[in-house]
Write a sequence for this structure.
């Protein structure tokens, strides 16, 4: 399973990428989608997710709205116009980092 430090460093990119592929999502839905897509290897806790969502919202990267579902208030998140551009940048940045890490980890000691 991925360590908390690795997840924490990638959480913003994970959230932005998920929202770039879904028109809107709510918090619990995000945690479940991450778990599903990672085959259970990555588990995002509410304690990590909601501060990240609030930070992204404060930075103007997310738009939100609330809706009553089954007599409960549910907050939905979607990418703002600014967020769409930042999502592409963050994903590209992470992809380049992963390629670099793969190259380093495959080096053989001489």
């Amino acid at each position: 399973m991925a360590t908390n430090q690795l997840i924490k460093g990638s959480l913003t990119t994970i959230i932005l990428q998920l929202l770039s592929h879904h028109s809107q999502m709510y918090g619990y839905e995000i945690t479940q989608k991450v778990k599903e897509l990672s085959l259970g290897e990555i588990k995002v806790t509410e304690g990590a997710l909601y501060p990240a969502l609030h930070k992204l919202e404060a930075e103007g990267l997310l738009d939100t709205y609330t809706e009553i579902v089954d007599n409960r208030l549910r907050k939905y998140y979607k990418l703002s116009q600014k967020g769409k551009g930042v999502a592409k940048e963050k994903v590209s940045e992470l992809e380049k980092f992963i390629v670099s890490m793969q190259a380093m980890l495959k080096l053989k000691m001489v």
About this structure: Residues 102 and 108 are 12 Å apart (CA to CA). Residues 81-105 form the longest helix (25 residues).
